[in-house]
Amino acid sequence: MKIIESPIKGVFEIYPKKWQDNRGYFFESYRADILQESGIDEEWLQENQSFSKKGIVRGLHFQNNPFSQAKLVRVLSGTVLDVAVDLRKGSETFGKAFVKELNSEEANMLYIPAGFAHGFSVLEDAVFSYKCSNYFNKESEGGILWNDPELNIDWGVDSPVLSEKDQYWPTLKEFKEKSGGGL
Ligand SMILES: Cc1cn([C@H]2C[C@H](O)[C@@H](COP(=O)(O)OP(=O)(O)O[C@H]3O[C@@H](C)C(=O)[C@@H](O)[C@H]3O)O2)c(=O)[nH]c1=O
């Protein structure tokens, strides 16, 4: 398992070692001890799975404190463009996005600490799976508009399809003002 810190401090790319043979493949999809060596030490309380068709965008989502969630995300099938936006108050990379393709071939994952907005676009029909360090709490749901002009994220899909609520999140600027500088 190879773990690489992204240009945004605290966000890690994780590449499991995949063993291929004539039967198929094997890989360790989670190793608490190896993640701990990189400082990733979470108690994972919830695991989620979603399926999305090509062209869908989900995000950008977070939960407000004290229900903020770190996430360990990957795809079980298909390909997504995964996006983590730093909303940590006082962070030197506040408002910066880390964008990474996740696909089932590489089985690569992202660790996203608490204090980030998260979303993904679907490049090929995808089953998406992720662990969360906190339980779902509907009242504390928050978001940033996926096509925020300041973030200017290239989602890699034409005319994306979004849920109703994902069309109306505040912009990054509005979030910053309302939250007093971040999460
Ligand atoms: C996220 C979540 C949703 N739900 C319910 C609420 C709703 O009726 C239904 C669908 O929820 P959503 O539309 O919010 O699902 P979705 O848009 O897939 O939300 C997810 O998006 C990605 C990008 C994330 O990072 C996740 O944390 C989560 O916010 O599932 C739960 O019961 N538990 C959960 O943990």
From TrEMBL:
Question: Catalysed reaction(s)?
Answer: dTDP-4-dehydro-6-deoxy-alpha-D-glucose = dTDP-4-dehydro-beta-L-rhamnose
Which InterPro entries has this protein been placed in?
RmlC-like, RmlC-like_jellyroll, RmlC_Cupin_sf
Q: Which domain of life is it from?
A: Bacteria
Secretion signal span = none
Q: What is its EC number?
A: 5.1.3.13
* CDD domains cross-referenced by the UniProt entry: cupin_RmlC (cd00438)
Q: Name one GO molecular function term.
A: dTDP-4-dehydrorhamnose 3,5-epimerase activity
GO CC list: cytosol
Q: Which residues form the active site?
A: 61, 130
Gene3D superfamilies cross-referenced by the UniProt entry: Jelly Rolls
Annotated site, Participates in a stacking interaction with the thymidine ring of dTDP-4-oxo-6-deoxyglucose, chain positions: 136
**Biological or metabolic pathway of the protein:** Carbohydrate biosynthesis; dTDP-L-rhamnose biosynthesis
| NCBIfam families the UniProt entry points to | rmlC (TIGR01221)
**Described function:** Catalyzes the epimerization of the C3' and C5'positions of dTDP-6-deoxy-D-xylo-4-hexulose, forming dTDP-6-deoxy-L-lyxo-4-hexulose.
**Which family does this protein fall into?**
Belongs to the dTDP-4-dehydrorhamnose 3,5-epimerase family.
| Oligomer status and interactors | Homodimer.
Name of the molecule in the record: dTDP-4-dehydrorhamnose 3,5-epimerase
Q: Which organism is it from?
A: Indibacter alkaliphilus (strain CCUG 57479 / KCTC 22604 / LW1)
